[in-house]
From TrEMBL:
UniProt subcellular location: Cytoplasm; Endoplasmic reticulum; Membrane; Nucleus
EC nos: 3.1.4.11
Name assigned to this protein: Phosphoinositide phospholipase C
Record-annotated C2 domain positions: 611-737
């Protein structure tokens, strides 16, 4: 297959085709020379025994010492010879050192060109690329042709269970040259026969007069009746034909062939996610407390809470995903330098100043809206002063040091007001009022650190100990395991004025109760809760909790007993209007799927405006007793689902589970039946129906699993989005892997209807 990327005149790519010897670096002591070479497909880089890096797996290229590994060898290799390949999802980075600065720059520029080319591909180009990838995988002897044995192996790789007779019939039909081999165009024909979409063809033929094409008027009927498009139909249909129809003859007739119809349905406009809500579309001028804020817990950790690695990379990755609230746990370090790690555990340690440097470099690359730095402070006054120095020196004007316009505020500023600013959330001596009336306490006084997690975990431990004492003797060892997490009782520390002065709109306070908060709390005070405490408040006083969150910020974080860095379901906290719902970004699963789904809208800027009934101070909304009702129903088929079982002969038996996450009354799950031995083009034609009372808070999660009657089903892929962003009609759902990366061209095809119930 010919590459779709034009490389004529690109000296960098030509140089990469020749290849280079570079050092692969894992640590200060592990540096091995490897030969790296771009393959002729312009999509793969081979090194050492044909280990491969796929361009489609790369998110970015960082030049210089922009990783901890490369920083550790900065005295040995200059920055202009170093660069880092950053992979999508949670895969570790690849750090490289070239033999010269020119060679490094050639690889950096070339790799960026390849990534940019891939990102700018249209749907047809992506499909061509995917077909080419399969051809190369199946062409075992690399002769540019495929014999029937290679075709049979290909079918297994593609999750197709087809009897030999039918496979040979398709092979013979595609073999126009009658050579017993399939070449480029013949393989494309074979692929088209293999991927004949009966589900889409039925829809196409229902609106086509002759079964061969849709006239513009036919397409308009389809868009109006099925897709429920409400825009000016004539120019819209004409645009779609111009954009997606591959046949120039059909374009001249103002018509769309089946190929064009497929291209449209597989595009962003045919996606279940309404492209209108992709960019920033919400009002960004309301107070901070009126938004859900994408938030990370223990951001420095790459793994678990006990022995996991701490890394600046955690901050870079979270910020690159649109996270707008990151956390640091600060402790006294050697040589007067504060360090960051999970205290009283065996997690590794990093320097506080390195975290601040990462913030300076990456805070606003993805989103221009404010970043909140949540500090859990365990440092002495002396090292708190060092923290303040680093914040001021490194962040400069990005650090918010005073109220906007120097006035005494009466409410929190908006994300729009705070663009490009970093806010500190921490303990503060006194309040904002003292800054304007001159009554500031002794600079060395003020309580610091219950910052919540240490004290809350201790309370949870004491509660668990009392339970453990009542269990049977045979289970006694559980008591000793839990004692690992016992921490000292709450203690008071003195707070440095320099660090206190860095806190403006996010003063950390201990929560008493909602009545006390209603009378005494200030709009700039932020209370933090463990997930269990938040659930208790939600259960006992849901309306009060929502009301509290309409006036000030609340942070919720995972239980200290989640030592594996697992996540709770954030939806129940969003139901109460909690803004800063902190999750372990390093851990894939349902929690992060929901987080990615919610914050995938509004430009992925990390801020989503809460529904109006959660922002109004007089609101009496109770998530336990919602009122509105909608009916939501999808009908489902699937295409090219990825293989999940490593056994060569295994074929996926897929089923789809649709989950509704929202207020308790709306929580629901339904499954299709499973399709035996077909991961390539399974068709279910199952209809699932859900009644939804609070659509503004509802999230829809599609999960594909490989059915197994003897053990737990294997995860295949998922897609999550807010119900408010769903496009009705016939739509494709492009699936994501467990770690949150796209798995093209795996998708589901659904028909969606949402109706309002009386």
């Amino acid at each position: 297959m010919q590459s779709i990327i034009c490389v004529q005149g690109d000296d960098n790519l030509q140089s990469m085709l020749v290849g280079s010897v570079m050092r692969k670096v894992k640590s200060r002591t592990w540096k091995k020379q490897r030969y790296f070479k771009l393959q002729d497909d312009y999509m793969t880089i081979w090194y050492k025994s044909k280990k491969a890096v796929s361009v489609s797996d790369l998110e970015a290229i960082r030049d210089g010492h922009q990783s901890e590994v490369l920083l550790s060898i900065a005295d040995e290799f200059p920055a202009d010879r170093c660069f880092t390949l950053v992979f999508r999802g949670r895969r570790g980075n690849l750090d490289l050192v070239a033999e010269s600065a020119d060679e490094a720059q050639s690889w950096i520029n070339g790799m960026r060109t390849l990534i940019e080319n891939l990102e700018n591909m249209g749907e047809r180009e992506k499909l061509d690329q995917w077909i080419g990838d399969w051809f190369r995988k199946a062409d075992k002897n690399n002769d540019g042709r495929m014999n029937f044995k290679e075709v049979q192996d290909l079918l297994k790789m593609m999750n197709v269970d087809m009897n030999e007779h039918h496979a040979h019939r398709l092979f013979t039909m595609a073999d126009k040259s009658q050579s017993g081999m399939l070449e480029d165009d013949e393989f494309v024909l074979f692929y088209k026969m293999l991927t004949q979409r009966e589900d889409v063809l039925r829809v196409f033929q229902a609106y086509s007069v002759d079964g061969q094409k849709l006239l513009q008027s036919d397409l308009e009927d389809f868009l109006r009746e099925e897709q429920l498009d409400e825009i000016d139909m004539q120019p819209h249909a004409k645009q779609l034909i111009e954009r997606y129809e591959p046949s120039d003859t059909a374009k001249l007739l103002n018509a769309m062939t089946f190929d064009g119809f497929l291209m449209y349905l597989g595009s962003a406009e045919g996606s279940i996610f309404n492209p209108q809500w992709r960019g920033v579309f919400q009002d960004m001028s309301q107070p901070l407390c009126h938004y859900f804020i994408s938030s990370s817990h223990n951001t420095y950790l790459m793994e678990d809470q006990l022995r996991g690695q701490s890394s600046v990379e955690g901050y870079i990755r979270a910020l690159s995903r649109g996270c707008r609230c990151v956390e640091v746990d600060c402790w006294d370090g050697a040589n007067g330098e504060p360090i960051v790690y999970h205290g009283h555990t065996f997690t590794s340690k990093i320097l506080f100043k390195d975290v601040v440097n990462a913030l300076e470099n990456y805070a606003f690359k993805v989103s221009e809206y404010p970043v909140i730095l949540s500090i859990e402070n365990h440092c002495s006054v002396e090292q708190q002063k060092v923290m303040a120095q680093h914040l001021n020196h490194i962040l400069g004007d990005k650090l918010l040091k005073s109220t906007l316009e120097g006035k005494a505020p009466v409410e929190l500023p908006s994300p729009e007001d705070l663009k490009g600013k970093i806010l500190l959330k921490a303990k503060k001596i006194g309040g904002l009022e003292e800054n304007f009336n001159g009554t500031v306490e002794d600079p060395q006084s003020g309580e610091v650190s219950d910052e919540d997690e240490v004290a809350e975990i201790n309370e949870d431990n004491l509660h668990r100990e009392s339970i453990c004492r009542r269990i049977k003797v045979g289970q006694l060892r559980i008591t000793f395991l839990s004692s690992i997490f016992l921490f000292p009782q709450r203690s008071t520390q003195r707070l440095s004025k320099e660090l206190s002065d860095c806190v403006v709109y996010c003063k950390s306070v201990q929560f008493s109760n909602f009545k006390h908060s209603r009378i005494h709390s200030k709009f700039y005070e932020v209370a933090s809760f463990t997930e269990s405490k938040a659930r208790k408040h939600l259960r006992e006083a849901g309306t009060e909790f929502v009301h509290h969150n309409s006036r000030q910020l609340t942070r919720v974080y995972p239980s200290g007993f989640r030592t594996d860095s697992s996540n709770f379901n954030p939806q129940e906290m969003w139901n109460a209007g909690c803004q800063i719902v902190a999750l372990n970004f390093q851990t894939a699963g349902e929690g992060m799927d929901l987080n990615d789904g919610l914050f995938g809208q509004n430009g992925s800027c990390g801020y989503v405006l809460k529904p109006s009934f959660m922002r109004e101070v007089g609101s009496r909304f109770d998530p336990e007793t919602p009122q509105q009702r909608d009916c939501y129903q999808p009908v489902i088929s699937g295409q090219q689902l990825p293989k999940v079982n490593v056994k060569e002969d295994s074929i996926v038996d897929p089923l789809v589970r649709v989950e509704i996450h929202g207020v308790p009354m709306d929580q629901a799950k339904q499954e299709t039946r499973y399709i035996e031995n077909n991961g390539f083009n399974p068709v279910w034609y199952d209809t699932l129906r859900f009644t939804i009372h609070t659509p503004e808070l509802a999230m829809v999660r599609f999960v594909v699993e490989d059915y197994d009657k003897t053990s737990k089903n294997d995860f295949v892929g998922q897609y999550t989005l807010p119900l408010s962003c769903v496009q009705q009609g016939y739509r494709h759902i492009h699936l994501f892997s467990k770690d949150g990366t796209r798995i093209p061209p795996s998708s589901l095809f659904v028909h969606v209807r949402i109706t309002e119930l009386e």
